[in-house]
Write a structure and sequence with these properties.
Oligomer: heterodimer
Strand order of the largest sheet of chain A: 6-9-10-3-11-12
Radius of gyration of chain A: 25 Å
Largest sheet of chain A: 6 strands, mixed
Distance between the termini of chain B: 14 Å
Helix content of chain A: 25-40%
Strand content of chain B: under 5%
Strand order of the largest sheet of chain B: 1-2
Largest interface: A-B, 32 and 23 residues
CATH superfamily of the largest domain in chain A: P-loop containing nucleotide triphosphate hydrolases
Mean pLDDT of chain A: 87
CATH class of chain B: Mainly Alpha
Low-confidence stretches of chain B: none
Number of helices of chain B: 13
Amino acid sequence: MAAFSVRAMQIELSNLSKSYGTAPVLRDVKLTLQGGQVHALMGENGAGKSTLIRVLAGVTPADSIDLTIDGRAVNLRSAADAADLGLRFVHQELNIVPQLTVAENIGLSRPTPTRLGLIDWGKLNTRATAALARFGATHIDPRAQAGSLGTGDRILIVLAGLLADETPARVLVMDEPTAALTHAEADRLFAVIAELKAQGAAVLYVSHRMEEVMQIADRVTVLRDGLVAMTTPTGTTTKEAVIHAMTGRTLTHVYPPRRGTIHSGNVLEVDELSAGPLHGISFSLRHGETLGIAGLENAGQSALLQAILGAVPRRGAVRLAGNLAPASPASAWAAGMAYVPRERRREGLMLGRGITPNITLPHLAAHAWHGIFSSAKAERDTATRLGAQVALKYDRVDQNVATLSGGNQQKIVFARAIASDPRLVLLDEPTRGVDVGARADIYALIAGLGAKGAGVLMTSSDLPELIGLCDRIAVLRDGTIGCIIPTDDLTPARLLSLIYGDTTIKDAS
Amino acid sequence: MTHLRRYGTLIGFVGILLFFWWELPDTFLTQGNLLNISRQVSMLAVVAFVMTVVMAMGDFDLSVGSMASLAGVVAGVSFAAGYPIWVGVGAALLAGLAGGLFNGFLVSVLRILPFVATLGTLTVFSGLAFLASDGRTISGANIPDAFSQFARLRVEMLGLPMPSLTLLAIAVLVMVWVVLEQTPYGRRLYAIGGNMEAARLAGTRIVKLRLTAFAFTGVGAAIAGLMYASRVASANPTQGDGLMLDAIAAVFLGMTMSDEGEPRVLGTLVGVLILAVLDNGLSQMSVDSYVREILIGGIILMAVASGSLGGLRRR
């Protein structure tokens, strides 16, 4: 039995627009999916890929959308609609329950077969085996605990569950399925995709990885700033053309002017650092210099910053202004480091608390009489002063930070970082989820840090931003620094090809 | 609505006072009865105040009751062995410190959930108390007079004969208030309760703080155990057992009164007083003690539910 109806169909999505407030995220997007074909969707972060997927899943309502299946107009207003139409999704976070068996996970969305009120394990396992066999994943034992399997096999479990549904699957949307896979696992997944394709599936494949897109996709569509920048058969295009389509946007942000003076001494020296996925990292950063860290998603950017802060176990030497830095966040802050984490809400803020404690969190002793008795007034004064410095928009200084916008929340984390005139500032995706206006303020703050002589080490997946703010950029590849390049005359396309580590890509511009 | 949420518990407390005043016009709102209530509740108050310290971090200490029992027994055993009072008291406080540090070690270094860790030590401390006392009550001639006299002591203050136990509880209250509200140490405990990972990445020494906070609570529980032993002039391995649940209930009652639902020690004070007044008033009205428990439990649930309803509405 085939998982897909063999008849090749055509799914046409057009006139798709979506705005958040006044900011358009998708503008008149058109996308045609063909049964038996793999269609790759590419684009930089913020280009609108995730929104498009959420609209297709019926999770986010579009402002306008026309959807036809084989020329017949259909409605897509809810997740139930999406399911009925045969749209299936493999999200980046895999929805599996590690405590249950493979068979239970595969049968999760359907009634469990029972006999005399008890689970009919035989039937459940037979069904699961059949579901896995549909695309040749016979190596997975349906009785195994799902949590004991690797990520590659977990994706296959999710796929088996999706395709075992009563309504026939028409379109399979996969969002960065290979992000956490090894090469062997990815190859197995590609074999499965080829099998599904042969059975007539239309696959929408979202990926950052140029190589695999060229390898498995029949067509590629590139989104840029919410518009379709390119849609073409992969056979008639090149990597250079795709990269150009991804990055060739007009610059929407103006970066503050470069401040010039980089001092001679090193504020940071990293020698043979290893931590988590990273190994053999060595570089130095001068006073007043801003060094960017680039790489594919999850190439270890966050791990590098956290290792320098001492928040994760590390080996190798980290010297701050010539002195060996002990591996703990508390000593790092005390020695003059400051850190703005990537996940603002999880790692940065005390949501539910006021602005003042959120800003003064690392500086409480400095606001206390002889370091012993806190002064609420001194803390409030600092919060007010720094709030003005970072152009924070708020009503009261005791306002709950959960009520502030993402941009203003980020400014609070920034205010915390600059409160003690740090020597070294570690910024992890400092403009993530920040609106355009607040972005400009944050750019000015970053430039200001360099002007004051602080060293800045920052990551960003927004390449023009990284080029616009940094003096040099280190490219992380395979867990180590592939190269460090000055940003003068660097184009986003050139940087992107360095990130892909593909020397065959010529400068597209 | 937010006002009702924030002040509801306080209004309820005043309502309870008025109700008993109405029902018991001659015996309830008298100086003697109020001072008596304060003395009766002083042990619970001390445990609840120090419980606030660990709950500020979002943690729990379920072992406070059995630690109080153990501390009383340690003092009693020392007295029975003929050691002077200061040795017995010192040994009991050291036991509290050691037990608290052990809790802190389990929670912060081994990263065992506080609920599980202190559930374990609850049983361990209780077992130790039985072992040390041989399961018997240490009383009579074994307890020095001077020790049991302490609980009966009254100090003339503001024209009132203040019970020594009440004064001791007030001293602990002031100390906990200063530490939690007026020192960087206490503010950091609240930061841990606000977002432990954020606090860690912002340079807060999580392990050290959690370790010492649990030690603080352990010593507080030991003080309460000594107060109890002095008041009843005896020590047995179960006498502190009831303290833990009431202390947590008092902190929860207090939490309904703070801005963001975090535990504040002055809120805990109100929680303690509500429990004490209910107990005193209802027993004066000769309400059956089982019915009393049902009523008190119901009132706690009502207060906490009204708090979380307010929270739901804001979402």
